[in-house]
Amino acid sequence: MKVLLVALAVLIINIPFGYWRGNVRKFSLQWALAIHLPIPFVVFLRIYSDIGFALYTYPILIGAFFLGQCLGKKIYEQRMKSGSQPLTSCLFTDLIKQEK
Protein backbone atom coordinates (compact mmCIF):
# COMPACT_ATOMS: atom_id res chain seq x y z
CA MET A 1 0.00 0.00 0.00
CA LYS A 2 2.85 2.39 0.82
CA VAL A 3 4.36 1.84 -2.60
CA LEU A 4 1.14 2.93 -4.32
CA LEU A 5 0.87 6.08 -2.20
CA VAL A 6 4.48 6.96 -2.95
CA ALA A 7 3.85 6.26 -6.65
CA LEU A 8 0.87 8.62 -6.58
CA ALA A 9 3.02 11.30 -4.92
CA VAL A 10 5.75 10.78 -7.53
CA LEU A 11 3.21 11.11 -10.33
CA ILE A 12 1.79 14.35 -8.88
CA ILE A 13 5.26 15.83 -8.29
CA ASN A 14 6.24 15.16 -11.90
CA ILE A 15 3.24 16.79 -13.60
CA PRO A 16 4.57 20.38 -13.24
CA PHE A 17 8.03 19.25 -14.36
CA GLY A 18 6.53 17.57 -17.43
CA TYR A 19 4.64 20.78 -18.16
CA TRP A 20 7.92 22.68 -18.00
CA ARG A 21 9.60 20.06 -20.21
CA GLY A 22 6.87 20.50 -22.82
CA ASN A 23 7.73 24.17 -23.24
CA VAL A 24 11.48 23.91 -23.79
CA ARG A 25 13.71 22.71 -26.60
CA LYS A 26 14.52 19.01 -26.46
CA PHE A 27 17.98 18.14 -25.05
CA SER A 28 18.53 21.69 -23.75
CA LEU A 29 19.70 22.41 -20.20
CA GLN A 30 16.16 23.28 -19.09
CA TRP A 31 14.85 20.04 -20.62
CA ALA A 32 17.44 18.02 -18.68
CA LEU A 33 16.66 19.91 -15.48
CA ALA A 34 12.92 19.31 -15.89
CA ILE A 35 13.61 15.58 -16.00
CA HIS A 36 16.28 15.35 -13.29
CA LEU A 37 15.23 17.89 -10.62
CA PRO A 38 12.37 15.73 -9.26
CA ILE A 39 14.72 12.79 -8.57
CA PRO A 40 15.84 14.02 -5.10
CA PHE A 41 12.16 14.31 -4.12
CA VAL A 42 11.61 10.70 -5.17
CA VAL A 43 14.62 9.55 -3.15
CA PHE A 44 13.35 11.53 -0.15
CA LEU A 45 9.91 9.92 -0.48
CA ARG A 46 11.48 6.45 -0.67
CA ILE A 47 13.46 7.03 2.51
CA TYR A 48 10.73 8.89 4.43
CA SER A 49 8.05 6.29 3.64
CA ASP A 50 10.29 3.34 4.57
CA ILE A 51 9.71 1.52 1.27
CA GLY A 52 13.46 1.54 0.75
CA PHE A 53 15.08 0.53 -2.49
CA ALA A 54 13.68 -2.95 -2.98
CA LEU A 55 13.82 -4.21 -6.55
CA TYR A 56 10.04 -4.54 -6.95
CA THR A 57 9.54 -0.80 -6.27
CA TYR A 58 11.60 0.37 -9.24
CA PRO A 59 9.16 -0.46 -12.07
CA ILE A 60 6.25 1.06 -10.14
CA LEU A 61 8.00 4.32 -9.29
CA ILE A 62 9.73 4.68 -12.65
CA GLY A 63 6.36 4.18 -14.33
CA ALA A 64 4.78 6.83 -12.09
CA PHE A 65 7.70 9.17 -12.78
CA PHE A 66 7.35 8.97 -16.55
CA LEU A 67 3.55 8.99 -16.47
CA GLY A 68 3.69 12.26 -14.51
CA GLN A 69 6.14 13.71 -17.01
CA CYS A 70 3.94 12.65 -19.95
CA LEU A 71 0.75 13.98 -18.33
CA GLY A 72 2.41 17.35 -17.70
CA LYS A 73 3.55 17.56 -21.30
CA LYS A 74 0.06 16.60 -22.55
CA ILE A 75 -1.50 19.32 -20.38
CA TYR A 76 0.86 21.85 -21.93
CA GLU A 77 0.06 20.65 -25.46
CA GLN A 78 -3.69 20.76 -24.78
CA ARG A 79 -3.43 24.31 -23.46
CA MET A 80 -1.49 25.30 -26.59
CA LYS A 81 -4.15 23.79 -28.85
CA SER A 82 -6.96 25.51 -26.94
CA GLY A 83 -5.29 28.87 -27.43
CA SER A 84 -4.63 29.63 -23.76
CA GLN A 85 -2.26 32.55 -23.96
CA PRO A 86 0.22 33.57 -22.79
CA LEU A 87 1.75 30.28 -21.72
CA THR A 88 4.81 30.08 -19.54
CA SER A 89 6.87 27.12 -18.43
CA CYS A 90 5.15 27.08 -15.02
CA LEU A 91 1.88 25.20 -14.69
CA PHE A 92 0.91 26.99 -11.49
CA THR A 93 1.49 30.44 -12.97
CA ASP A 94 -0.56 29.58 -16.04
CA LEU A 95 -3.43 28.26 -13.92
CA ILE A 96 -3.45 31.34 -11.71
CA LYS A 97 -3.41 33.67 -14.73
CA GLN A 98 -6.26 31.69 -16.31
CA GLU A 99 -8.50 32.26 -13.26
CA LYS A 100 -8.09 36.06 -13.35
Briefly say what this structure is.
Helices cover 74% and strands 0% of the residues.
Any overview of this molecule?
The protein is 74% helix and 0% strand. Helix 1 (2-22) packs antiparallel against helix 2 (29-36), helix 1 (2-22) packs antiparallel against helix 3 (39-48) and helix 1 (2-22) packs parallel to helix 4 (57-82). It has one domain. It has five helices and no strands. The chain has helices at 2-22, 29-36, 39-48, 57-82, 91-99. The protein is mostly helical.
Short key terms for the protein model shown above:
mainly alpha; 100 residues; elongated; single chain
Q: Any idea how many domains? A: 1
What is the structural class? mainly alpha
Tell me which oligomeric state these chains represent.
single chain
Shape from CA axes? elongated
Total number of beta strands: 0
Computed CA radius of gyration, to the nearest angstrom: 15 Å
Beta fraction: under 5%
Order of helices and strands: HHHHH
Q: Helical region count?
A: 5
Spatial separation of the terminal alpha carbons: 39 Å
SSE layout and pairings?
Blueprint: H1 2-22, H2 29-36, H3 39-48, H4 57-82, H5 91-99
Helix pairs in contact: 1-2, 1-3, 1-4
